[in-house]
Design brief:
This protein has a domain of 40 residues. By secondary structure, the protein is mainly alpha-helical. The longest helix is centred in the middle third of the chain and has 12 residues.
Length: 61
C-alpha cells in the first residue's frame, strides 16, 4: 500500500512547499516501487513498504 498526497503536517511556508505537496515524481516512485518497475527509472524518494510503515508510525503519511 502506498499513499500519495500531502503529508500530515501543518502547511509549511512557501519555500518548503516542494517537500509538502505531492509531485509527479512521487507518483512515478510509488508506481515503480509498488506496482511495476519502470525500465531505466531511478526513484527520487523511497516509497517502499518499510518506509511507508515508518512514516505511518510517526503519523506523517
Amino acid at each position: 500500500m502506498c499513499v500519495i498526497g500531502a503529508k500530515n503536517w501543518i502547511v509549511p511556508p512557501a519555500e518548503l512547499e516542494d517537500y509538502y505537496y505531492p509531485m509527479a515524481s512521487w507518483f512515478l516512485d510509488a508506481y515503480h516501487t509498488q506496482i511495476k518497475p519502470l525500465p531505466g527509472y531511478q526513484p527520487a524518494t523511497d516509497r517502499s513498504v518499510a518506509e511507508m510503515r515508518l512514516a505511518s508510525k510517526y503519523g506523517v503519511l
